[in-house]
Amino acid sequence: MVEECSCEALEWGRLLELVASFAHSSVAREWVLAMMPSRDTSWIDQQHDLVNEMRLLLGQGAAPSLGGLFDPTKLTDKARIQGASLEPEEIRDLLFLVDNIVTWQALIERPPDAVAAQLGGLRALSQLPAGAQLASLAQGLRARMNPDGSLSDNASPELRRIRREIERQQRVIEESLRSSLRRLSEGGSTQEDLITIRGERFVIPVKAEHKRRIPGVVHGASSSGQTVYLEPLETIEQNNQLVQLIDEEQAEIHRIYLAMTREIGGQANAIAQGAATLAQLDTLQARGRFAAEFDCIRPRFADPAAPVMELKQGRHPLLEKRLRAQQRTVVPMTLALDDAHRQLIISGPNTGGKTVALKTAGLLGMMAQAGIPVPAVEAVFPLWDGFLADIGDAQSIEQNLSTFSAHITNLQRISRLADASSLVLLDELGSATDPEEGAALAVAIAGYFLDRHAWCLISTHHTSLKVYAAKRPGVLNASVGFDEATLAPTFALRLGVPGASAGINIAQRLGLNPEIIADARAQQDTQTQDIGRFLDQLHSQLDASAREREDLKRREQEAAREKSRLEGEGLKEWRAKVRDLEQQLQSLLKDFTYQMRETVRTIEDRAAQQKLSKEAERRLARLRREFSEQFNSVVVAQHSGADRGDSNAQPHLARHISVGDTVKLKSLGKTGVVQRQVDGNVFEVAVGAMKMRVARDDIAEVIGAREIRAASPLEAARSRGVTVSIAHPEDTVRPELNVIGRTVEEATGEVEQYLDRAFLAGLPRVRIVHGMGMGVLRKALRSLMERHPHVALVAEAGPSEGGAGATVVDLRV
Q1: Residue of 427, 438, 440, 417 lying closest to 344 (CA atoms)
Q2: Which of 78, 465, 571, 795 has the fewest CB atoms within 10 Å distance of its CB?
């Protein structure tokens, strides 16, 4: 437990009263009111874990039943005494308590599915001692006891028998008395026709003047004396039997209560522990409901090796409660200190929120170490061993202390206790005395606590302290805002800049005589006025900058949303186009399949037809598979951008066409010989005696290229008498290189060496097999080959050569 806490100055008691108001039982309220901050990190973490679990449970609409919770210690101690018997009301209260314990045990054993795996702490907390049988105890007590605490007829067979006998005896007595009433009423001796009870004996009302005429026992008279209550002689024995039965009933009831007391005593430890668990659960649900009401979060604690104090949008819960009642909202506070900057000097206008900032920081730190969630968006604290505050007017007439003396006395105590693990909060440091001396004293006190490495928040109006914060390493300035237009504080805390006190402006807003205000402004020296104006202008610029940042942030968010929307629409459009293209291609494939099968059917030779049909089906399946793979690869590459800017990614155009090549034409289904190239995509082709111009996309494939055997660069050099040697000579260079499975770096090096060897070997054309995939390797290799000095032309392989999974290269030989 943290021993040094300025609880009164930080309103700790009022905060606990607020949290306790959410508890159901007086026991839990007492527990909450006794809470204090702790330095035991394991206990603190456990408490916050339990509160979080309780909040999860409350969020599912489940909660412990706590209506009958009380401290059962006295009753369980009494139940342990040999021969002692609990009163019916006491047993009833214990039964309600045991019912609550059993109900909670059932809930924690079978919680809602959504949170069942997250309640380990509550399950551990709810463990009862070995041998506990509270469920059977509750069931047994409830079977014998009525809700009002009396015993039911089923409490024991003997009690049931006695009560049946009592009922029978009462009927016998009533019949006898009614017979007497009828007889006596004829003579006018009875006052009224009814049967009543006096002293547990059945009697009839008789007129006082006739009492001696009727044999029997008088058991009393009315208040007027005109009526006496008489037990006729013939019912005396019957009443005696009834009284005896009633005595037997009471004896049996006492025996049953003794037995029930012994049963309770046997489970006394379980009841006491279960009640303690319910009390703690009540404190947890009180903290959980408080956290939900004030939008609290679980605080974190900084690493001791790199301590920080960070509070993002922290709110003082007591101030928030008061403002809510006025239908107003609290202004949250944000601050940040680290190990290199442990002191914060807060300045600004009166009534601007400086004191609230100090109290908020201190109170939220205490709440964090007491296991209470804090009202903030984010909170990180060091683990403090003292919360030391000098806030408010501590003047005391009885102790002969002025305001200044009281502050100094408190500061002396704080200076003696404060160390690197303390939070020191000093409000209006250096006030209530001569301004110059107070300012000098304030700077000296601030420096002392800085040297002690204590975490320290100081509010002030002294310019000297603002300058001290600006010049002294380890100290930061902060200010509370002030609206020049309304002459009112904004209560917002801004880090990094000091604030003007604006005392005259505040006085003007509060309605002080204008003549006094004007005279006060005239009394200010020029330097003070310049500093005030500078700070006002600085805060105005900061406000404008903050508004611009918010506006820029809003625009960036809008742009991001618009970009996301457009990308989504573009993706939808692209997918629609792909689906449409797939449907068209499937239709073409179906038509091609139909035409091919019809052609096969026209063959008259049945054996040849079957053989051709099977071969055609196999080829068709292979073509379908290859085409599907190529189509998917192209679609993926186009979508991923791998083919962007790749002029060779056109799988259906014949690339390697030269004069003299034999080519097959799509439009005629015949072959021809290329006579000349008209332009880049038009050729003159001779088909028999006929010559025609055809486009490149009408050429299905090159069937045979003209045979031109030229000497390789290696042979040409040697023929000229040049001696050429190769580091790793090979007998033959294959016209194909497979780099599937290589990384881009590995493949580019291997392809570059291969192209050099192929060029030296005089190969006119080679094929690089790289696979389809996402198209990244294909794009990288094609970019390399287009820049290679030995490469004349790069093109995508045709469907029969691998399509998009390969690239053919013409070399400059």
Answers
A1: 427
A2: 571
